[in-house]
Amino acid sequence: MNMFYAKLVERLEDKKIRAMAIKIGDTDFDEKITGLFYRLNLPLNEGTAYISMAIKILNEEAKYYDGNSVIYVVARALKESAKNVNMCITHSIETAWLRMDIDVMTKIFGTCKWNKAPSNPEFITACVKFIQTGVKW
After folding, report:
1. What domain range includes position 49?
2. pTM, entire model
3. What CATH number does residue 11 fall under?
4. What is the mean pLDDT of the chain?
5. How far is 136 from 94, CA to CA, in rounded Å?
6. In the chain, how many domains are there?
7. What gap in Å lies between CA 64 and CA 26, rounded to an integer?
């Protein structure tokens, strides 16, 4: 496991979330997420780490969580406020949206309103669905 997940596991108190954090240390899935983030031009900051964790949790536990509730799970797991996690994720998405490549965004999000970035749950859910479909670049 890399250092981010090692620190994450140390900080978790809830047994279910701890079990999920250990289970989501899959390196192949990590590589898919990293490749997607590279294509989307997401900045390397705290918000991107939160998005990565939310994608992994939503991929593993989709029947228990939706795009909105997974943000609260991430906040609880890292002992952060949900508002802070939400703001960091929003900043990362807005930054990526300003740097966007229209072809990549169309491939991931389909046709959408190009004048406005997607909401946090929409972005996270679209990323999970794109990774699960296994579309090749």
Report:
1. 3-133
2. 0.76
3. 1.10.10.10
4. 79
5. 25
6. 1
7. 20
**Is residue 35 over pLDDT 80?**
yes
Q: In whole angstroms, how large is the CA radius of gyration of the chain?
A: 14
Long-range pairs for 49-53 at CB < 8 Å and ≥24 separation?
49/4, 50/74, 50/78, 50/85, 50/88, 50/89, 50/92, 51/89, 51/92, 51/93, 51/123, 51/124, 51/127, 53/8, 53/24, 53/77, 53/78
**CA–CA distance, 101 with 112 (Å, rounded to integer):** 14
Element (DSSP H or E) covering residue 66: none
In angstroms, the CA 85 to CA 78 distance is: 9
Alpha carbon distance 89, 75 (integer Å): 11
Q: Which amino acid is at 23?
A: K
